[in-house]
Amino acid sequence: MADFINVLREYGADVEGTLERFMGDEGLYNQCLYMLFDDENFNKLLDATNSLDVSGAFSAAHALKGAVANLGLTPLFNSISALVDVLRPGGFVDFKEYSDKVFSDFNELKNLFE
Asked: What is the pTM of this model?
């Protein structure tokens, strides 16, 4: 389990804060991280990005923002927060660059655990 924690620290995650929320349960932290990798909101965000659906992208990104924050995944949280901020005002905005950054950060994280 130490490797899991070290990988997250090197990634830039707030491991200590997250473990505090998880009452020190590294196994639960690990389990929740792997659940994130299968979160359907990433597919919803991709679909919304491809169809330029601002409302759908906001909904998916906002849900992901909460999940990622709870896991202390600071780099991914920062990119998702930037996307949510761009989408928040409503109306059409060019958000593909922000969405691409989210997916880049997400894939970087996933690759660390494959």
From this structure: 0.91
| Structure tokens belonging to residue 110 | 């996933």
The answer to whether 77 and 66 are in contact (CB under 8 A) is: no
| Secondary structure (DSSP) of 43-58 | HHHHHHHHTT-HHHHH
pLDDT digits (tens, 9 = 90+) for 11-41: 999 999 999 999 999 999 999 999 999 999 9
Integer Cα distance of 52 and 44 in angstroms: 12
Residues constituting the chain: 114
Q: How far apart are CA 24 and CA 97, in angstroms?
A: 36
Residues 6+ away with beta carbon under 8 Å from 27: 1
φ, ψ at 12 (rounded to 5°): 110, 15
Name the 3-class secondary structure at 35: helix
Instruction: Report d(CA 30, CA 54) in Å as an integer.
Output: 32
Tokens 């989408």, residue located: 87
What's the pLDDT tens digit per position in 5-17? 999 999 999 999 9
